[in-house]
Amino acid sequence: MLLAAATVLVGFIVLIWSADLFVAGAASIAENMGMSPIVIGLTIVSMGTSAPEVLVSITAAMSGAGNLAVGNAIGSNIANVGLVLGITLLIAPLMVHSGCMKKEMPTLILVTVGAGILIADDDLSQVDGWLMIGTLGALVIFMLRTQQKDEVLVGEAEEEYLPHLSPKRAWLTFALGLGLLVGSSRMLVWGAVEIASTLGVSELVIGLTIVAVGTSLPELAATVASAMRGHTEIALGNVIGSNLFNLLVVMAIPGIFSAATLEPSVLTRDYPTMLGLTLLLALAIYISRLRSRSMDGHAYVGRSIGVLLVTCYALYYYWLYVSL
Known about the structure:
Helix content: over 70%
CATH class: Mainly Alpha
Largest sheet: 2 strands, antiparallel
Strand order of the largest sheet: 1-4
Number of strands: 4
Number of helices: 14
Radius of gyration: 19 Å
Keywords: Membrane, Transmembrane, Transmembrane helix
Mean pLDDT: 79
Shape: globular
Oligomer: single chain
Order of helices and strands: HHHHEHEHHHHHHHEHEH
CATH topology: A middle domain of Talin 1
CATH superfamily: NCX, central ion-binding region
GO molecular function, one term: calcium channel activity
Subcellular location: Membrane
Main location: membrane
Protein name: Calcium/sodium antiporter
CATH architecture: Up-down Bundle
């Protein structure tokens, strides 16, 4: 048990550090190839924060722990809204750009509902997995075409820090980050499975709790840092982009590698919580927009919503506890 716990802890530390190396190397390679900052920000940097979830999901699926991967995807989305955004709102209120209310948030709701329809039969098949991946591809193309025309997002994305490494150093950093990501994800999955076996709980619960919170730490760091610098649109965008990626890639991987039969509690407890928190966030943004007296169409979400989100997250953990 102690060895498994230590392996999980070391795995988390290396996983988060290697994700930063991976993003820095990939972003520098793209920059050296002539890609613009906005394209790098919308693709490599946005998706790079989900690299830990992706590698853990692949490793879990290949190890026959498909429910751990599904729990990681759903649990990470619950943590992103309830924990990451909740804590961020307690630190600083978020200004939500009108474009987010018209495009990004509705897209996340549609994808969340669509994912629920695909897994409604308690089965995650290869067809389901490829449908999710195909949807992501269409979304990325659409977002690149529309958001490059958004002057606000372009300006904020270009203000975000992008590493500037020489071609040789960029490739070495990328290779080192990728190698450490693979190795640390294997450590994490092994330790998580051992802990689940020792405690007598399901791999799904471990994925929803320990693994989900650990792999959401990069989003927490990025979101809090963006909010404290005043880049609140990017702070919310980080969470929405990560949740879309988790639903359309991280959760799709178990189905693609080997069809997974889901535990009943996924549809009766975990998915409804994820959908409920997503709708709660959308409702809070909509009400904030109605109450806002500003003429710019922005909504300002404050600390009271942060308290509500963190409370809902704590209640979900209590639900998990009494369900064991």
